[in-house]
Each structure stands twice: as structure tokens, then as C-alpha cells.
Amino acid sequence: MRTLVVATAFLLAASPGASDLSGRWTLTMDPDFRGNHNVVDVTVKQDVNRLVVQTADGRGAPMAGTVTGRQVIWRSPSLPGRLSSFVTFTGKVDRSGTAIKGTWDMPLTGEVRHGKFSLKKLK
Fold this sequence. Notes:
With 123 residues, the chain is mainly beta. It has one helix at 2-14, and strands spanning 23-30, 38-47, 50-55, 63-68, 71-75, 88-93, 99-108, 111-121.
């Protein structure tokens, strides 16, 4: 049994995790929050397992999140006076660490908007 535990711990430690995700990315949302196809550049900053995602032009509020292995999740801050207006992005990093695909959800009063997104790292 001890051998199994040690072997499992070794395999988990050796499992490929996400590389450093810091840098500029192109975010494609289909649909975006208004129901349209949208492409925007974003900047990702990673510090160990913490992420900050922000539009490259700096106009959007920073969105905080985490990375665990190849799984990423980040959330936009709620708008003042609208507690349910946050957006949650959940995705998976590809093995090369240069693409992320996933879904976004935005709960609103009486409905939940959702869509798909992809990120591609710019060189």
C-alpha cells in the first residue's frame, strides 16, 4: 500500500501542469456578453497559482483567478449596485501552454447568460 501511495504522489508531482501563462493573449468570445462574436487582446499575469486577466488597453477592470494544473478560472468583479453582474470564466490550458478553451457564465436576475471562449497566446 505504501508503494502505491508513493507512486501516486510521484505521478502527480510529475504530471504536466500549465506553463507560465503570463503575457499577451487574444481572447475570442462566441458569443460575448451582448450576444455577438468578439475578439479582444488581454494581458495575463501569473504569480504561482494566481492569475490576473485584464484587457490589453487597460479599460476593463482586472479579473482575478487561479490556475491548478491545466485548469483555470477567473472572475470579473461585480459592477457597483449590481451584485449578480460578475462573469466567471472556466477553462483548460492545452499541453503547449499557448491556448485555453472554456466557457463563461454571467448570472443575472432571472437568467444566466453563457458562452464559449478561447485564448491564444501571442508571441
